[in-house]
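seq:
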Amino acid sequence: MSEEPVEPKREFDTSGVLARTLTSLTEGLTGVGASERKDWILSVGHILQSIRSGRLLRSFADEWNAYREKGKVKEDYTASEQHQECLQELLDFLDEGPPDSARFAALKKILLVAATESASARDSVLPQQYMKICRNLTSGELLVMLTSFDLSKAPPSVKLDTPEEARIWLDAVARSSGLRYPELVEIHERVLIEKNLLTPRLYNDRSGVTIGSHFRLTALASDLCRYIEAYEESVAP
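struct:
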């Protein structure tokens, strides 16, 4: 008995999906005047959100197409579950509220690094998990995490595991990130600790910290930042 021929996976048209999404955004703006819900749709916030989302998505579409043209993405990669799930994360992010360029940039970088298959295999679940984490961070939290990663490469030459030295970590991140105020960093620090991206304070009065080898980042956060950083290598000629 002859075996049934196995039908090859069809390529997923990512460029087409992006083009259609952009068209929908444009049509949504040009058609607002005729809408019965004109007063609601014509709100300045809604229009601005659509414009900003369109700008971010158009920039990503151009970069994605450039990656494909340069051969950085294998022809059959777009048919993988990993790619389609990561693309869904990106589009859902733009659909959920006012776009945040910092978080979008992180999501875009993770998706493109995954697509090159240079930092992970196409069957890895990590890229989508990394994108979920970034989607659920604020831009401030993301900034503190990435700044801590940068500082881990050349940390201040001070001991940070004593009660009186915790302020040094806050000052270093505030200065390097541009947030300026240690108190502002501390707001984001609390959430990052809750999300297992930053190691907790050592003492009951929350005064001490352990610097470790990642400038207080957990292994998860450090690997996530390293994955985002791999984007810089992926854009090289």
